[in-house]
Design a protein that fits this description.
By secondary structure, this protein is α/β, with parallel strands linked by helices. It folds into two domains: 108 residues, Rossmann fold (3-Layer(aba) Sandwich); 103 residues, Rossmann fold (3-Layer(aba) Sandwich). The chain has nine helices and eight strands. The longest helix has 17 residues. It is globular and about 50 Å long.
Length: 224
């Protein structure tokens, strides 16, 4: 039997890991592989800056190496995809980043995707990543809701702001699909999609779906 797909939340906030774990329910299929969600306790409470993102690369890679023999694939559950390429050098198993997978999935659902970020300072980091992927011309806009990672636990405030920003991305910027720009938003996907009436991609689900395909088809990690 295949080992589990290990989904690593690189921040130390357990509530984010719990939200990710709940979002995995539709993907836990009979016959596996199992999907195991973990918290990187050495990480900051939230990854809200480039420094935060860079700071988790070493402990994240250590965590992957320790579990390498048991796991069938790894997913880095942070929209910055911290340490993605370093992690791919640390294991021959597939390593998926949720930003890359979320954006790629969005482009199969619509022509122009909008990203809902947590904070304004997250936006430049996302724009650099979209540019590195070579898909800037498909990005409608990236707009923040003005809440940090820990504040996402306030459901009424978070969902209200996500609906407002999602509508702006759709109506003012021409987005026909949305990507949730933080793994901590996972619990709000269904309600947001109902409110904005266009597809909403929860990026950890997108990444785990790709990991499931890789494991089932026997495709290994990235070429070295």
């Amino acid at each position: 039997m295949d080992g589990p797909i290990v989904v690593i939340n690189p921040n130390s906030t357990e509530a984010v890991t719990a939200a990710i774990d709940a979002a995995m329910a539709p993907l836990r299929l009979p016959g596996g592989p199992a999907i195991v969600c973990q918290t990187l306790h050495d990480g900051p409470p939230g990854i809200e800056s480039q420094h935060d993102s860079d700071s988790v690369i070493e402990p994240l890679c250590r965590t992957i190496v320790v579990q390498d023999n048991a796991a069938s694939a790894f997913v880095i559950a942070c929209f910055s995809d911290p340490g993605l390429h370093s992690a791919r050098e640390a294991t021959a198993k597939p390593v998926l980043g949720i930003a890359e997978c979320g954006i790629l999935t969005a482009m199969t659902l619509g022509h122009r995707f909008g990203v809902i970020s947590i904070l304004a300072k997250s936006v430049p980091r996302h724009l650099r990543y979209v540019g590195a992927m070579g898909v800037t011309d498909r990005l409608a806009a990236d707009l923040p809701i003005g809440l940090g990672i820990v504040e996402l636990a306030n459901a009424s405030v978070t969902l209200g702001r996500m609906k407002e920003v999602g509508a702006r991305l759709r109506d003012d910027h021409g987005a026909d699909v949305l990507v949730m720009g933080c793994a901590g938003m996972a619990r709000y996907r269904d309600e947001l999609e109902t409110a904005v009436r266009i597809p909403v991609v929860e990026p950890t689900q997108a990444a785990v779906m790709m990991a499931l395909g890789r494991v089932r088809l026997g495709w290994g990690g990235a070429l070295r």
